[in-house]
Amino acid sequence: MTQSNPSGFNRRDFLRAGSLGTLGMLLGSMDSVAEIRAPAVSNKDDEDPGEPVPCAVIGAGPWGREILDTLARLPGAPVAAVCETYEPFRRRASGLAGDAEAVEDYRAILDDPEVKAVIVATPSHLHREIAVEALEAGKHVYCEAPLASTIDDARAIARAAREVKDKQIFQAGQQFRAEPQHHHVRNFLQAGALGQPLFVRSHWNKKESWRRAAPTSEREAEINWRLKTDSSAGLIGEQGIHSLDIASWFLNARPKAVAGRGGILYWNDGRGIPDTVHALFEYPGGINYTFEATLANSYQGIGDLICGSDSAVMIQENRAWMFREADAPLLGWEVYARQEQFFEKTGISLVADATQLIQEGLDPATDAPEPEPSIYYSLKDFFACIRENRTPHADFNVGFEAVVTAVTAHEAVLNQSTTTFKDEWFDV
Questions:
Q1: Strands, E, within 122-230: which ranges?
Q2: In angstroms, rounded to a whole number, what is the distance separating the alpha carbons of residues 173 and 379?
C-alpha cells in the first residue's frame, strides 16, 4: 500500500538536488543511534565580513547584554550606540559596548546617521513603536522574538517591514532559522529519513520563577512584565515560539488547530501567567505537535523530538541524535557511512567538512569546533543580508506567522480551549 506524505518531504527530489556522498554520511547504516553534529564553524578571526555595518542595541537588559557580548565577537558589526531607560542597566551595558554612546531615548539613535542597523531587545510589548519608527527612519532592523506580545502589534511591524523590503533588511529573532545545526537536521528530514512523519514534541522546563527583584515597587512592576497578561505572551509566546516555529518549518506547514491547557500550579505569587502549560497542535495530514513547558521543574531541560515510521530525531541545544527503527528500509547510502561508537551503540558521527578534518589528521567525531550559540548565527545572517542585499532566513513573514501561532496557543491555554486557525489570520 502506498502511503501519503502530507508534510511535503520528497526523497527523490532531494536526491536530485543534493550530494550523494554527503547524504550517504548523513543517512548511512546504523544499529540504533546516529549522532548528528552541527556543521563545523569556520574560523571567525580569519573571516573577511566586508564593509562594517555600525549598529545600535535598544534594550540592555540581560538578553540585550548577551547580544552586546555576541556582537563583540562578530566581525564587521561595530556597536555605535546603546539605548536603555534604566540607568543601572545602561551603565552595565556601557562596559560591554566599548566606545559606544549610551543613551536613554532610542530616538537619539534613530536620528544618528552613523547607525545603519538597529537591534531591538526591549520587552516584547514595547517592540512595535521602536521597530516601526526604526524602519521609517531608514534603519535595518533586527527585532527579537516574539515580534510582539499581540498579533495586532506584530502585524503592524510586519507591514512596516514589507513597505521597505526592497531597500532595508528586517529580520525576526527566530534564531534557529539561521543556525547550521537545524539546517543540518532539516536537510535529512527533507530527504525522507523519518519515513512517514508521525508527530513532533517539544519541551521547555526550568525551575525558576521568572520574578525578578528590584529596588522600588515601580521598577519591580516594570521589570516583571512577563508575569502579566496585558504585556506577556506567556511561556508559549516568550519561549516556546522558537520551538513552534521550528515545528512549522520542519513540517512545511501551518497548524490547523490548537488545544491549550495550563495553570498557576506552583508559583502562587499573584502573577497572571500560568507557570505550567500544555498545547496540542494539529497539522495537515493528522500530524500532531505537542509543546509543554513549566517553571516548576527542570527535568529534561529544553528539547525537541521528531518521530516518523523509520526513525526519530532528538535535538537538545547544539546536538542531535537519530534513532533508527529496526525494520527501517536501507536507503542505499550505507556504503558511504563512517561508523562510530556512541553510548555502546554503533552509529554515525556527522560533521560538516569531515574530509578536510581527516586530511588535517583530526577525528571528525571528536575534533570538530564547538558551535556558537544560536544568537551568533542569527546576528551573523542579519549583517550578511545587509551587505549582500538578500532576504534573511527569518524575514517578517516568518516572524509574524510565529507570533500568530504562539499567541493563539497562549490564549487557548488561558481560556482552557481549542481554537481552529483561519488562513486569513496569517495574512500580513
A1: 140-144, 170-173, 197-205
A2: 9
DSSP state of 296: B
Instruction: Give the C-alpha separation, 141 to 120, whole Å.
Output: 7
Model confidence over 378-403: pLDDT tens digits?
Answer: 999 999 999 999 999 999 999 999 99
Grid coordinates in use for 237?
A: 509566546
28 and 159 inside one domain: no
Distances (CA, A) of 65 to 97, 223, 423: 9, 15, 38
Do 170 and 264 lie in one domain? The reply is no
Angle at 215 between CA 125 and CA 91, to 5 degrees: 70
Is residue 172 located within the same domain as residue 185? Answer: no
d(CA 264, CA 274): 4
Q: Would you state the pLDDT for residue 95?
A: 87
Q: Domain tally for the chain? A: 2
Reported as a single tens digit per residue, the pLDDT across 299-342 is 999 999 999 998 888 888 777 778 878 788 876 544 344 444 44
Residue 5, number of CB atoms within 10 A of its CB: 14
CA dihedral 123, 400, 377, 83 (to 10 degrees): -30
- Whether 227 contacts 237, CB under 8 Å: no
Residue-by-residue DSSP string for 206-232: -B-------SSHHHHHHHTGGGSTTT-
**Can you read off the three cell numbers belonging to residue 294?**
513549566
Which CATH number fits the domain that encloses residue 146?
A: 3.40.50.720
Residue 154: partners with Cβ closer than 8 Å, 6 or more residues away: 128, 146, 147, 148, 399, 400, 403, 404, 407
How many CA atoms within 13 Å lie on the side-chain side of 6?
Answer: 15
For position 102, what pLDDT does the model report?
Answer: 95
165 and 215 fall within a common domain = no
Residue-wise burial string across 323-340, b where 16 or more C-beta atoms lie within 10 A, e elsewhere: bbeeebeebebeebbbeb
Same domain, 275 and 322: yes
pLDDT digits (tens, 9 = 90+) for 5-59: 434 444 333 333 333 333 334 433 334 445 555 554 444 445 677 899 999 999 9
Which SS3 state, helix, strand or coil, does residue 82 take? Answer: strand
b/e map 177-202, b = 16+ CB within 10 Å: bbbbbbbbbbbbbbbbbbbbbebbbb
Predicted TM-score of the model (pTM): 0.87
Q: How far apart are CA 134 and CA 117, in angstroms?
A: 9
